[in-house]
Amino acid sequence: MALTEVARPVARRAIDAISRHRVFRDIFELSLVALAFLLYFLVRGSVVDRPDEAIGNALDVIKLEKTLGIFWEKQLQEMILGNMALIQLMNAIYFWLEFPLIAVVGIVLYFVRRHEYTVARDAFLLSGAIALVIYHLYPVAPPRLTPGFGFVGTVEEYTGISYQAASMQPFVNPYAAVPSLHFGWPVLLAATLFWTFRHPLIRAFAVLLPPAQLAAIVFTANHYIVDAAAGLAVAVAGLLLSMALQRWFYPRVVLWAEAIRSTPQVEAAPGRLVKEERPGSAAGAP
User: Fold this and answer.
1) CB contact at 8 A, 204 and 150
2) Residue 269 burial (CB < 10 Å; 0-12/13-18/19+)?
3) What share of the chain is helix, strand, coil (3-state, %, to 5)?
4) Could you give the angle at which helices 225-244 and 200-219 cross, rounded to 10 degrees?
5) pLDDT tens per residue across span 72-81
6) Which residues pair with 266 in a beta bridge?
7) Is the pTM of this model over 0.70?
8) What's the average model confidence in pLDDT over 83-104?
């Protein structure tokens, strides 16, 4: 039996189930996103054995910032180190207004604005894929792990949350500072919120989110300013690719799915599927 004779009816039934039953669509979408992010964090956390290279690259980043006159991270962090309220505010922004917020907004968008959800989902996943390649090719230590400058990792120091804990190690790469998706993804999230909703409070939050997260990643000594610029570039690239999928790829997928669903087939004999004869066709015609 030809492979297509098996694959086509299986594909047809899967497409029918997903398109006709909401619960199957929801399960399929949840599984897709969960698997994609699990693979992202597993692959991201697998490149952790190059500390010397990562520190050397971090020193190159510092050299670049000094050349550009923007090596401000140490002075900026010193502004808040004596103020516990500001430290905890920056820690909270860093921790809660990235992945937890992305998950909440993603769930809301999935049920109320499906098109915007799809564009945002693809932008996040594609930018993450681009970032994984860069993390592998160019590991960079964050300021808190760059020796000789006196940076303080405020999240680990003052919250008790440690990304270096044994339970977190399979998912965390401490040398994934460039690009900073901890800035790039909130920018994508802010753009999605501003584009999707017209409520002034939501749009005000969207405007404030990127600068707040930029401050948080610097004040907590988790990223350099150049890291944030790289994260923004990767996020924009992911968004552009997502828009290209909407324009050129998904319409073809819809046409393919409709072609699969519209192919009439009936059971002719046990274990064998044949095309249904159309009215007016000759008996026994191929």
Assistant:
1) no
2) exposed
3) 70, 5, 25
4) 140
5) 999 999 999 9
6) 274
7) yes
8) 94
pLDDT, tens only, 99-136: 899 999 999 999 899 899 999 999 999 999 999 899 98
**Confidence label for 280 from pLDDT (cuts 50, 70 and 90):** very low
- Distance separating alpha carbons of residues 231 and 236, to the nearest angstrom: 9
Question: Rounded to whole angstroms, what are the CA distances from 151 to 45, 58, 72, 137, 219?
Answer: 23, 13, 12, 25, 9
Q: Kindly state the tokens that stand for 254.
A: 């819809």
**Beta strands at 265-269 and 272-275: parallel, antiparallel or unpaired:** antiparallel
Among 215, 143, 206, 153, which residue's Cα sits nearest to residue 175? 143
Burial zone of 234 (CB within 10 Å; 0-12 exposed, 13-18 middle, 19+ buried): buried
CA atoms within 13 Å, Cβ hemisphere of 136? 12
Q: How far apart are CA 112 and CA 107, in angstroms?
A: 9
- In the numeric block, which tokens belong to residue 272? 């064998």
How far apart CA 58 and CA 142 sit, in angstroms, is: 7
Write down the domain spans for the chain: 50-161+171-253
Paired tokens of 251: 């319409």
